[in-house]
Amino acid sequence: MAGQLRFDNRVVVITGAGSGLGKAYALEFAKRGAKVVVNDLGCSISGEISSKIPADATVAEIKQLGGIAFANYDSAEFGHKIIQSALEHFGRVDVVINNAGVLRDNSMVKISENDWDTIMKFHLKTTFSVTKAAWAHMKKQKYGRIINTSSGAGLYGNFGQANYSSAKIGIHGFTQTTAREGEKNNIKVNTIAPIGASRMTSGIFTKDILEMLSAEKIVPLVVCLAHESCNESGSLFETSGGWIAKLRWQRGKGIFFSKNFTAEDVEMQWNTINSFEHCDYPKNSIDTLQKVVALAEEANIPKPKL
Ligand SMILES: NC(=O)c1ccc[n+]([C@@H]2O[C@H](COP(=O)([O-])OP(=O)(O)OC[C@H]3O[C@@H](n4cnc5c(N)ncnc54)[C@H](O)[C@@H]3O)[C@@H](O)[C@H]2O)c1
């Protein structure tokens, strides 16, 4: 049986670790020997008012358990400040968990530019900013683990969350690209799309459902992805209430029009275009280009120079 996944001498930076899922992660990493940077702006669910109380409370709990942590109160959009304080306190950074986030739900009629910009800033920009600041150190030490936080709203869409869902699916695009960029230097980047009990979900679900979806049930996947033994990168996992599953792209066989074609031809082939009967699971856009070149070759269209 494998031993406990330990994080002794590892420095773990967690944004939004003052409450909800982030706090659950922070406590667990500290129990497993990590030095934890507890970042939290202490803001309301919509991103207003900042307070040191949530980050301080998480750090106090960790210290009570005999763990090592310090609080950082910067907004995660200023990643360089968070990483700088991690380096000053602990001298390195091994794991980044981009978890901070807020909500500004509004339907398309009511959503304001400010609602849009705030969500982009609090989710997408924060994820970029902390990762960017940590990246050079991870590259130099040839080691890093980054976990980014998406959402079912991003994967599937959700009424009233055009801003949030755009940011959340954007985060997985960021994961996929940084995973490729990190390959040579043992920097692994993955995305989770959790559903867990927190103030974000307390108004949505019943008490019984919230109990079933405790934040602690999101923790094991995050710990696993953050460990040095994890070779996964660029992947996306849904997790909730003790269930964990990987997602991937699925592509139908489609149809290739070798000669001039019109909108009417497309309409006529609609069922074939939508069929997943002979599907594949593409992994990059070169796959797509190679596929088109192969189809053109099959149809005796002269091969273009690549
Ligand atoms: N709870 C769920 O079911 C669920 C579902 C899908 C996605 N998520 C995502 O998981 C993450 C954690 O959500 P949660 O449910 O624990 O929410 P939460 O509101 O309980 O915790 C979020 C924490 O982030 C902090 N924060 C917000 N903006 C910040 C910023 N710019 N800098 C630093 N700290 C900031 C807040 O002060 C708060 O303590 C979020 O990214 C959320 O979008 C949660």
UniProtKB/TrEMBL annotation:
InterPro entries: KR_dom, NAD(P)-bd_dom_sf, Peroxisomal_Beta-Oxidation, Sc_DH/Rdtase_CS, SDR_fam. Residues 10-198 form the Ketoreductase domain. It comes from the Eukaryota. Keywords: Oxidoreductase. This is Ketoreductase domain-containing protein. It holds the Pfam family adh_short. Signal peptide: none annotated.
